[in-house]
């Protein structure tokens, strides 16, 4: 998008008054969004946004400015502003020779969404809406369908001579269905998304996504109240990795660790989970929503083993936090847009599959709760304490899957739960989302195999044992 000579000049101006490091993040993105509610297409919007963020680091001090003026003059103006915020020693003007950094990760896109007509996208949204409604026309009261795609091109250059270019293409479809009968109202949610093009909706048919959300809402109408008390809990692989993402993953982001806001601070090399648990963040996975070739600081993506056989091995770093710990960034400096500074963020975070048969994990649970879909929740990253809603859960009775229940919540402590995992299945199921932190949202995936937790507090409106 911008030539190397211009970027080199911008870096030189940014460091004119001193500083240890400078970088430029240039972004061009084209977005499309379609919303359908009450059977009507309520909105179709598309737009283009572009701009650049310029940063200077001096020790632990960060100076940051951004602009949507990508002319040479506009960039130099922003660089001048950011340079004046650094209280360093000015020196001889430097010239930076930028060398392209290549990533071994390439993502295949079969149908670029910017080459797919709006009519085709609207047709997919309508198909999902209709499929949800025909599940039960009398009890499905509301269906909301959202489609979005983004084509993002970035150019990143820094004062160490790094120059990287990347294109990220993501597509997403979500359906939320509301069912009611008498005084009972229940919802069902289903979402698919990946680092891919419109071919996503060939792998996951809109009709199937819509029907899955509606069936979940309808089924929950006749579910019995969940019991309350301590009991074994099996999280099915299809439930995705909400637990590992929220109760564990955020606590492994290096900025929270360095601020003393993580229970994992000072525990590298120590056992923090059961020996059957290995946690990985791998942004190089194909077709995953949280994947990327480079992070937003131009560091090539890589697989990072965070916990191995229960032992804490690493944290998720961006350049700034890596410098503080005297290590190299492992490619997890991410930002929402050019208007935001990079911070350590997850990409695709998951517990790796084990050797246990998922069906046997349930049979060995005796009496407990099987969770097939997680809902929302709250986590305190400083303590690891969490509360999660269960969107779809079943009683386990004498090792067999029993009736569907509603109103269940899971309460516990993330590090404690990791130690209480006693079986890890050979399967693996992913979910997607937009992870929020420090006012920024970035696309992520999380996953887990079927796991059994020895004991967890289940909240409900029914009677426990």
From TrEMBL:
Looking at the record, the residues that make up the Metalloprotease TldD/E N-terminal domain are 22-79
User: What's the protein here called?
Assistant: Protease TldD
Q: Which family does the UniProt entry place this protein in?
A: Belongs to the peptidase U62 family.
**Gene Ontology MF: a single term:** metallopeptidase activity
Q: Keywords on this record?
A: Hydrolase, Metalloprotease, Protease
Q: What Gene3D superfamilies does this protein's entry cite?
A: PmbA/TldD superfamily
UniProt xrefs under InterPro entries: Metalloprtase-TldD/E_C, Metalloprtase-TldD/E_cen_dom, Metalloprtase-TldD/E_N, Peptidase_U62_metallo, TldD, TldD/PmbA_N, TldD/PmbA_sf
Superkingdom of this entry's organism? Bacteria
GO BP annotations, alphabetical order:
proteolysis
One cellular component term (GO) for this entry is: cytosol
Metalloprotease TldD/E central domain location is 112-221
Q: Where does the record place the Metalloprotease TldD/E C-terminal domain?
A: 229-460
